[in-house]
Amino acid sequence: MLASVALAGCGGDATSEAAAAISVDGQPEKPNLKLGFIKLTDMAPLAIAKEKGFFAEEGLNVTLEPQANWKVLLDGVIGGQLDGAHMLAGQPIAATIGYGTKADLIAPLSLDLNGNAITLSNKVWSQIKPSLPTEGGRIRHPVSASALKPVVDSYAQQGKPFNMGMVFPVSTHNYELRYWLAAGGLNPGYYTDGDVSGTVDADVKLSVTPPPQMPATLEAGTIEGYSVGEPWNQAAVQKSIGVPVITDDEIWHDNPEKVFSIRKDFAEQYPATTAAMLRAIIKAQQWLDADHGANRAEAVKILAQPNYVGADEEVIAASMTGKFTFEKGDTRDAKGFNIFFDKYAGYPYYSDAIWYLTQMRRWGQIPQDQTDEWYIEKAKSVYRPDLYLAAANKLVADGVIPAASIPQTDGFRGEQSGFIDNISFDGSQPNAYLAKFPIGLKQGQRVAASGVTGQ
């Protein structure tokens, strides 16, 4: 019965090997595991699975190991030093299509929705704040990047670049920052073949900084703002060095964020271990969202430990417990800032993967046009709802999670709105979606060092 339910949830596209994985319910073949993470609050499902005993319940002895940056983490998974990791959603997708590093990685589980923000330096904030509309004595949100245009223009007139930071070329943070800038009429630049800077034709220059180093880089004046996950936006508020101006939920309502990623051959070699890991993480996700966030205060204490996020409890709690501070004196309700289990947060939708692929094409990381079928095929090779359902349906059968927490879907969310530019997204029509953007590559266009070519 579980196998048939899981296959139905995949839209009937599961392969024979996936069908075999769905029936797995045995002892883990590899009980001793090392998983990697970056010091961000959205690694919480891994920390909670460890600290609340969910990994142990599944027969797993898991070591969690912080990584220096996203490249080191990616290389660790590919090279086998790590058995899996808290990973940027774009990383397994990019590796599969051969952007940067070629490797067969999969994402059998989405870790969370939302969780990021964009922060500006005090200097830039003081320049744009007087022009922003207010509502009830506070700045009206969402804040448009169009407010930055006069500042960016003044930098250009002085012959200076306007620099902002993000965490990795294929990170959600990069695409969200680019999306926000372009929606406000600012070009964040294009990538050329073999180029990881992505600054061709850029009004705003974006560079890579590891998340924990973002506040120090901002304070040093190297960048004028950044896009990063928590707690590193709230850290800027606490240090009085910057002001968050928009959350990613205001850029794309309930957007998918990190994934749990493993190598494809790991899942094939260790199917019971894979299922056990996913069950433990799903339990942790449920714990994090249970009773309207009743466990979040305990989660904050766990994450504050130096072996996990290692930031002050006050800083982590500022976004993890249903509030978000934009500047001192302006704290607002943000109950959905971190979603781990509700709203089907753990289900790896094909359409989520396709959105990332469209942004890779939009900015030149995918250098040439692809068919809609190509986008869908690549998404299905990386995002693996069949493996998610193998774990989740077993938890339903055991009475651990409710059946209603698993979506009835073919793997696509359907047409989505809730974007800051009011452009809707239908994952089944990626090329039609790309054609809607005023800023971004169009059908037939390519990028050279001299600029965009083609019609």
TrEMBL record:
Compartments, record wording: Endomembrane system
Listed Pfam families? NMT1_2
For this protein, the record's InterPro entries field holds: NrtA/CpmA_ABC-bd_dom (IPR044527)
GO CC annotations on file: endomembrane system
Q: Which UniProt keywords apply?
A: Cell inner membrane, Cell membrane, Membrane, Transport
**Does the keyword Protein biosynthesis belong to this entry?**
no
Q: What is this protein called?
A: Nitrate ABC transporter substrate-binding protein
